[in-house]
């Protein structure tokens, strides 16, 4: 089953996104590989359930108690209802005394959408990756955490509606890391072929 999920993800990444849909609202924080995974999952979720799911990663240094709901209204024109918005703000200040940072917000467009997922479980699927002590650099953990949380959110919405998604990722950090590495290496190989190997081969044939 996991192999089929990986194949579906990799296949979707090399096919143009339908209708140029973009489920990532800013180009901050997330790497292109992570954004592609999110767009792939988002397209499947919206096509099968009618629910649009978005990610808003931001480097903003929000003060303590900053209203993320009000902040999200700046992006309403980029979203289609019914929707749920996942906000990730690693630089948002939580407490002033010890200067703890990092906030996650999950904002639905209606109470009906709110009932389709468990806020705490989605939030924790991101925080469990980001706060764990391992060899991954902070930026990578941010990307992995957001992708994992988005996958969890999409899965919960689909499950509530009695639908199974094929592009989401098992809730295990090592699988997320592996998928991102496969995509990254595939991209590097493609670049090497296009800009280095192929020109040399063509030059050799012409000579």
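Q: What amino acid sequence fits the structure above?
A:
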């Amino acid at each position: 089953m996991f192999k089929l999920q990986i194949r579906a993800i990799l296949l979707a990444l090399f096919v143009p996104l339908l209708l140029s849909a973009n489920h990532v609202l800013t180009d901050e924080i997330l790497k292109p590989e992570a954004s592609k995974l999110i767009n792939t999952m988002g397209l499947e979720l919206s096509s099968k359930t009618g629910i649009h799911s978005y990610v808003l990663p931001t480097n903003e240094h929000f003060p303590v108690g900053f209203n993320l709901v009000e902040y999200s209204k700046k992006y309403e024109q980029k979203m289609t209802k019914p929707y749920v918005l996942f906000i990730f703000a690693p630089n948002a200040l939580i407490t002033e005394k010890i200067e703890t940072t990092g906030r996650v917000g999950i904002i639905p467009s209606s109470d009906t959408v709110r009932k389709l997922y468990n806020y705490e479980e989605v939030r924790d699927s991101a925080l469990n990756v980001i706060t764990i002590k391992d060899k991954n650099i902070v930026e990578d953990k941010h990307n992995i955490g957001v992708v994992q949380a988005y996958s969890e959110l999409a899965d919960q919405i689909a499950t509530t509606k009695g639908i199974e998604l094929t592009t989401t990722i098992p809730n295990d950090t090592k699988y997320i890391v592996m998928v991102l590495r496969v995509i990254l290496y595939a991209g590097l190989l493609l670049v090497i072929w296009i800009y280095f190997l192929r020109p040399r081969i063509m030059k050799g044939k012409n000579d």
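Q: And what stands out in the fold?
A: The chain has one domain: 2-206.
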